[in-house]
Structure formats: structure tokens, C-alpha cells
Amino acid sequence: MRVGIIVNPDAGLGGKLGFKGSDGRAEEARAAGAKDRAGPRMEECFNKFTDLLASGLNRIKVTPEIITWSGRMGGAWLNGSNFTSIGESPETTTAGDTAKLIRQLIENKVDIIVYAGGDGTTRDIVNALGDKKIPLIGVPGGVKMHSGCFATTPNAAAEVLFSFAIGDLMASITEVMDLDEEIYLTGEWKVRMYGEALTPASPRFIQG
Length: 208
Description:
Strand content: 15-25%
Shape: globular
Oligomer: single chain
Number of helices: 6
Number of strands: 7
Largest sheet: 5 strands, parallel
Helix content: 25-40%
């Protein structure tokens, strides 16, 4: 089994500063003292996943191959664990980098993609996937997380990934949602369906 990892290192930076999202405001947020949110949450998820693989629950002794970029979009948050690097994270990241990494994960035939970010990251990933039916698990790390592919916590994301890896979960279609930030700035709450994605079906650990 091949697991693709993506971290949007700018996701969630605006949360504690009261921003309605982090899109286009990462530099401003960091200048105001914002700390990484998505990366540490991926680290928490991956630590739990590693513990599950080493436990007696791993009845089929699955040993997934982890595929990602080195650096802050992936490898930096894997605590020195072995992974296959297919590139190097740039110092400053954009939605274009997310799309590029997705294309490379597709080329490397990953079976599932685990990503840390928010609704904006989800939209970027779904756009880049196009008609490719690769299941997604979202590690909640953004300011906005309305989509149905997000786990409720980083540890929950690890539980879902592990259950999928050992064959206990099947993928199903879920909705990709996003909040219109421009409208929200005027005081109106408007969340719309953006598209659909596949995600392992787990009502206990995946949000509705």
C-alpha cells in the first residue's frame, strides 16, 4: 500500500488572529506571530499511525510505503521515519505546489492521500485530482473545515488511515464544502458544495 502525504504549511495560520481563512494571508499571519498548525497536526497523526502499525491490531502486518516531498510539505513532519521523497518543498508554497505534488503522487500510484490543511487545501487537491478516484483523509489543520473528508482530530485521521490500510474500511463519496470568505467578511455565513471526493467511510472518526 502506498500512502501520499501533503501538508499545506500555511493552513490555519490565521485562526488565532481572527482571520476568516489563511488564503493569501500567510505572510501577514507569520509576521503577526502565527505558528505552524497544519504541520504539527500531521506529525501528531503520523505518530499515532506509526504506533498502530506497531501494535497487535496490525493483524496483516501491513507496512505502507510513505510518499511525499522532503521538507515542510511532507517529510519534515514524519519524525525521521523512512519515506520515499519525490521532490523538495519550496521555501514559499502556493496552491500550484499542492497541485504539482498531487500530480506526482498520481504518477507514483498512491492508494490514498492524507493531507493537513483546511477547506481551501481540499479544493486545491480535488482540482488537481480531476477524475482520479484516489481516497482522501483530511487532518484538520485549517481555519475552515466543512468538507466531509476531514477526520475529527489528528488521532482520528490516523485511526481511519490504519483501518483503511488493513482492509476494514471502504471508500465512499463525500461532499467538498467551503465557506465564501469574501461574503463572510460582510457578516453573512454562506457555505456551498464545491464538489465530491472519495474518503474512507467512518462515521465515528470522519465528520459529517
